[in-house]
Amino acid sequence: MARIIVVDDDPLAGELTLTLLQDAGHEVTLIGDSTAALDAINSRLPDLVILDILMPGIDGLTLCHRIKHAPATQAVRVVMVSGKSFAADRKRATDYGADAFIEKPYDVDGFSQKIAGLLGAAPAAAPQAAPAAAPLDKFRLTVWGCRSLSAVQGAPPSRYGRRTSCVALEKDELLLVLDAGSGLVPLGRSLVESGRWREPWLLITHFHQDHFEGLGRFAPAYADGYKLNIGGANDPDQSLQERVQRAFEIAPPELGSVQAELELYEMMEQTYEIAPGLQVSSFFANHPGTTLGFIVESEGRKVVYCPDSEIYGEQGTAMQDYDERLVRLAGGADIFIHDARYLDPDYQLRKNNGHSSWLNTVELAARAEVKRLVLFHHDDAYGDDVLDRIETEARAHVAGKGYALEATMAREGLTLAC
Question: How confident is the model at residue 316 (pLDDT cuts 50, 70, 90)?
């Protein structure tokens, strides 16, 4: 008799697996919530785990990867089961250390025999990889730049910072950088100094200067041993490839020539899996030009980044459905980073320019039931006194309305986890 844990969110399939294995004499536990599976596996140390691939929360391939790469559980046999049986999925299962792949629906007569044969075999060895930092069980987010670009010259220093849009998001062995404003420059220096994150992802919302001006001065591009994965949308007049090439052509000559490998991804409105169990969904934002927002999801956690976006609020018309669409996209986000450039009186003077007031942003975040709102893309003409006022008024508005929402002003160096 073997101790087996079955992880499957489909109650019919899960119960069938449970019954077949119990009838074969095994001690079987069925877990329907994938987010609870790792704790159960670590505490019980079963002989075998059976994982469905497509599950909300943590997908089966991510669970397999974690089981096989943790010293305490790497000897546990893992079987992947799925009706999604493309050759690529089978290969990934093998790459992550799975001992077997069984396609759904089961051959009922042969299923128990396959499991019995597997229990008598040696477990698959986990793929060998270079030592890595301990996995994060959360997203860790750091703001490197959060200002807009304006005609203001000689602006005084600010507690919120003066660099333009750049946010770093860490998860497990992945570094995802959202936008390439001037905040990318100090981030790049820190990466080279630390020696970590040799293959970062850079996702660029659009090609306005304050979201792109740091790319040509990104230090890892000029160092050996780096691969930069750069994603963004094509503009009608210039492709992503042309934009990236131009950014490095006009970079300061003292930086030298680009040494890193560049991999470019032309993005549309769709979902991309850029790492095991981590999906990025891009959507078009309400801002001049071809502008994207990004939704990053993994293991039931959700971060939405939409730095240049105009919310209409109560002044929207029936034909302007962007607000409703954004409510759906941001729904339930753990962290929602959104344009809140203006005080409401200033917004009334600058409507239809692609930016929002903090008031409209707070109201939409409350409707979307996000947990934490980061007010972003501060107008460069605003000093710290105005930004302090926005944060104070936003928090007072949230409290007065009784919203279950935490509002925070972005500032350089702000670090959050979810």
Answer: low
Distance in angstroms (rounded) separating the CA atoms of residues 118 and 361: 54
> Could you read off the pLDDT of 233-254 as tens digits, one per residue?
988 778 999 999 999 999 999 9
77 neighbors 26 (Cβ within 8 angstroms): no
Alpha helices in 354-383 (DSSP H): 358-367
Q: What is the CB-side half-sphere exposure of residue 328 using CA atoms within 13 A? A: 5
Residue with tokens 């020539």: 257
H/E stretch holding 387: helix 384-401
What tokens appear for 24 in the block? 């074969």
Distance between CA atoms of residues 62 and 267, nearest Å: 24
| Contacts for 95 with CB less than 8 Å, ≥ 6 apart | 127
Tens digits of residue pLDDT in 119-171: 876 665 544 443 444 444 589 999 999 999 876 667 788 999 999 999 999 99
Pairing relation of β-strands 278-284 and 292-298? antiparallel
CB neighbours of 168 closer than 8 A, spacing ≥ 6? 141, 142, 144, 175, 176, 177, 178, 187
pTM tops 0.85, yes or no: no
Domains and CATH numbers, the chain: 3-119 (3.40.50.2300), 140-417 (3.60.15.10)
Phi, psi of 29 (to 5 degrees): -120, 130
Residues 98 and 64 sit within 8 Å (Cβ to Cβ): yes
As a whole number of angstroms, the longest Cα–Cα distance in the chain is 77
pLDDT above 90 covers what percent of the chain? Answer: 68
Q: Name, in order, each residue with C-beta under 8 angstroms of 415's C-beta and a sequence gap of 6 or more.
A: 140, 141, 142, 143
Does an H or E element contain 67, and which? Answer: helix 60-69
Q: What is the spatial distance between Cα 172 and Cα 158, in angstroms, rounded to a whole number? A: 33
**Distance between CA atoms of 273 and 277, rounded to whole angstroms?**
7
